[in-house]
Amino acid sequence: MNAVAVYPGSFDPLTFGHVDIARRALKIFPKLVIGVSMNVKKFPLFDLEERVAMWQEVMEGEAGVEVDSYVGLLIDYVKSKRARAIIRGLRAVSDFEYEFQMAHMNYKLDSSVETFFMMTGQEHFYVSSQTVKEVASLGGSVDAWVPPPVVRRLKEKYGK
Ligand code: PNS
To answer: How far apart are CA 22 and CA 89, in angstroms?
Structure first.
């Protein structure tokens, strides 16, 4: 079995829910590549380098983790990493349709790569990067939802 998995996402910014998925995936896959996507459809708050730097700080010292970024097709990136698994977290039914489409498109593009879905932990299922940004932009505390390196950068962004 090829034991490399890619955990892709915009991660703008990463949350404790994302960290939980990454750590649980590492119990199954000995090597996990966290792939931060440029995602041309979105206008991120944090640039690619900042999003990568936050993951690096949070996962520092964890064995088997590589933090990286990519532009272009996810499936091409997965192949470039010699991985055969994509990890995605599911929070609610509302995530399902988009994830279902993406998994099938990716499978059609390359059937040697499988998508694995993991249920977001129950403490995290209601948290999204979007709502975290909204609370932070209005001066609210986001300590419960994102790790300290992210809290710090959100404060810097919003001048709080
Ligand atoms: O965190 P997100 O924004 O839901 O992540 C989505 C992501 C980045 C994994 C996805 O948009 C992506 O990798 N896009 C790259 C383009 C691509 O491969 N599209 C085809 C799959 S439908």
So the answer is: 9
Q: Which residues line ligand 1 (CB under 6 A)?
A: 8-10, 37, 39, 73-74, 102, 105-106
Q: What is the pTM of this model?
A: 0.95
Q: Do strands 85-90 and 4-9 pair parallel, antiparallel, or not at all (unpaired)?
A: parallel
Domain topology for 4-123: Rossmann fold (3.40.50)
Distance CA 117, CA 134 (A): 27
Q: What is the pLDDT of residues 131-157, one digit of tens each?
A: 999 999 999 999 999 999 999 999 999
Domain assignments of the chain as residue spans, ordered by start = 4-123
What residue owns the CA closest to ligand 1's atom 1? 9
Q: What is the mean pLDDT of residues 90-105?
A: 92
Q: 129 catalytic, yes or no?
A: yes
